[in-house]
Amino acid sequence: MNSTGLIVEYNPFHNGHFFHVEEARKRTDADVIIAVMSGNFLQRGEPAIISKWARAKMALQAGVDIVVELPYAFAVQHAETFAYGSINILHALKCNSFCFGSESGNINEFSDAIDLIENHRVEYEAFVKELMKTGVSYPTSLSQSMKKIYPDHKNYIDLAKPNNILGFHYMQINNTLQSPMRAFTIKRKNANYHDEEFSSSTIASATSIRKATFEANQSINGIEQYVPKTTSNVLQEYYNDYQTFHNWEMYWPYLQYRLLSIEETDLANIYEIEEGIEHRLKRYAKDAVSFHDFMQRVKTKRYTWTRIQRMCVHILTNTKKSEMLRHHNHIEYIRLLGMTERGRMYLSQIKKDIDVPLISKISAISSELLELDIRASNIYSQGLQEPYRQKMFKTEYAQPPIYIHQN
Amino acid sequence: MNSTGLIVEYNPFHNGHFFHVEEARKRTDADVIIAVMSGNFLQRGEPAIISKWARAKMALQAGVDIVVELPYAFAVQHAETFAYGSINILHALKCNSFCFGSESGNINEFSDAIDLIENHRVEYEAFVKELMKTGVSYPTSLSQSMKKIYPDHKNYIDLAKPNNILGFHYMQINNTLQSPMRAFTIKRKNANYHDEEFSSSTIASATSIRKATFEANQSINGIEQYVPKTTSNVLQEYYNDYQTFHNWEMYWPYLQYRLLSIEETDLANIYEIEEGIEHRLKRYAKDAVSFHDFMQRVKTKRYTWTRIQRMCVHILTNTKKSEMLRHHNHIEYIRLLGMTERGRMYLSQIKKDIDVPLISKISAISSELLELDIRASNIYSQGLQEPYRQKMFKTEYAQPPIYIHQN
């Protein structure tokens, strides 16, 4: 069976995602679509609006055949480590190709950029380093360094765009594999990544959909035209089950409590905390009346919102440098969140050939990397009130992979 | 001016306390009554029903002249360290005497017990150690050891009674001082320390009063006959200001969060965590739906409710062994919470002679011991919802000592 991998967050799954799944299937002539999906905390340092189980269900009901979890140690990370984990998992699952959305939409622009940079690696890396020292962000530094090296090159890719930079890293990591997967990219339609307002009649960014969901007083009215019916249903089911959608504000009391009670030396041991920002984080924790207020107080030109949000997730989950550095370059297991009938057939076909344990339950193996996932899930549940907190705690241990009989 | 010290928690101040203040004043012929009072967390490992400021106000309005805070490092402690801090503070404030409530009510019984034990210290301590090894509690071991050494002695004091054992330690510590204060004791009236139901018409235990306050749906109806009018007023004011009284359940989500996110090795570094109980605490944290439920699951014959509650307070406030052991045998400052006009006169009279800094604001000195108090106060505030949380955070920094013009 011909298989194609996608790297996703589905927060929540919307029409743009649906388009991407269908287009990827066509372009790559896939029999099976495999999505590696962030768990309950996301790359940009946020809790997912609904749990990974509900998000896996949305995906499976809308055309994806297999959903596996990107472990916390790779998911809540800058682009390079995020790409490392995702690509390695898709490769371990024997994907023939992978397909990502990008602002560029042209796969040759990505290969060109990689070739150009490879040819001038030393010079290029020196430029990037120099620019970052002056306070320029990493993606912008990559982009500007390319301009410096090839001032006359017309079609260089804009690596300052969030999906381009991710795609660039996917392809870089893929190139380091023994048998690289074939890479495809699809131009993103209409909505820009961070758009907060709806910008077209049927495609809107996940950010704007989340915003609408929360603004509409935790109701899904007003988002139906931007998401498949299956997404509306799952969102409604989730709300019925847990009486809330998740956002950072639910976790703010815990983050504030943690910042007020932790010693600075211990805070400095949390992953991604560096350069003395621990003083700043502790200093502003007490005066802030909400997470949003806290972020406004803490952010600086030097630290992007996303970077600080990721720090906050690591503080919340008590993830230490020592833990992350032990684990962030090794895929110890692949956790199956759900599959369709076709996905099940694919997995039984490849099972004998894969050399990473494919697990359906967290009791299946003992792994420190998995401990991080379990802790992150527990903390995600902690945002709920009882009795919903208990319900979600139990789900993490008892839930078998979601199975969709007919796709 | 003749001054008498009391060691108190006033959680809340009730008629029994009022009787004790008046009786202490008469017996010791005091011009000034000084109370050293636990801050926001109490000896038995509980948050106080209302903040230390409100409790200080109750005391001052009902006859106490000076209220100072017993630092966290002495307050949330077993009897011996609690006594060490309290007696040393009263002595530093030049008290001529101190007066404690006890089940015995006879000061000679205390001196006798101390003499008897002093005369057979080695033998006595060996008995105590041996009994504790078999799982007998510390107070009961003290009591039983005395029976073993003096089987024929009729009037030995029952050290298994909670107020007797505290008084015993007060007197032991007082004896080690260069110029010991004169010791007085008053027999406790009617209510037993732990009584949960009201047992007489005007005197009830603080435990039963708290229980009534919470059971009556956070209303003070039904406790008026057991507390001075001033107490009812302060309780009502507090409720108007913060919309709640405090109990452990308010802090349960934070404790649970902490237990779920902390690593076992770090948990073992928290003060009073020993002998592998960290496994047990972590194991039961997830299944418990409330603090009460958690305590029921965790407690064993070996670990008393109070002992586990104290551990829980230290986990909640992130108080480490290293911090406590650095500080628990030195009075670095005395923090004034409030005074009457008469109290103010007394303090200006002794000011030149006291050799511990007497502080009115936490900005006055820099001390690691004080940092513990500030952290404990911040965590106490964290139990409130916004905007009340901010209000209480600010109080801790901005509140000058309460001043009562006319007593």
UniProtKB/TrEMBL annotation, chains A, B:
One GO molecular-function entry: tRNA binding
Keyword Disulfide bond (UniProt): no
Documented EC number(s): 6.3.4.-
Catalysed transformations (reactions): cytidine(34) in elongator tRNA(Met) + acetate + ATP = N(4)-acetylcytidine(34) in elongator tRNA(Met) + AMP + diphosphate
Pfam families: HIGH_NTase1
UniProt cross-references to InterPro entries, sorted A to Z: Rossmann-like_a/b/a_fold (IPR014729), tRNA(Met)_cyd_acetate_ligase (IPR008513)
Membership in a protein family: Belongs to the TmcAL family.
PANTHER family (alphabetical): TRNA(MET) CYTIDINE ACETATE LIGASE
Functional summary from the UniProt entry: Catalyzes the formation of N(4)-acetylcytidine (ac(4)C) at the wobble position of elongator tRNA(Met), using acetate and ATP as substrates. First activates an acetate ion to form acetyladenylate (Ac-AMP) and then transfers the acetyl group to tRNA to form ac(4)C34.
Family matches, as NCBIfam families: PRK13670.1
Record protein name field: tRNA(Met) cytidine acetate ligase
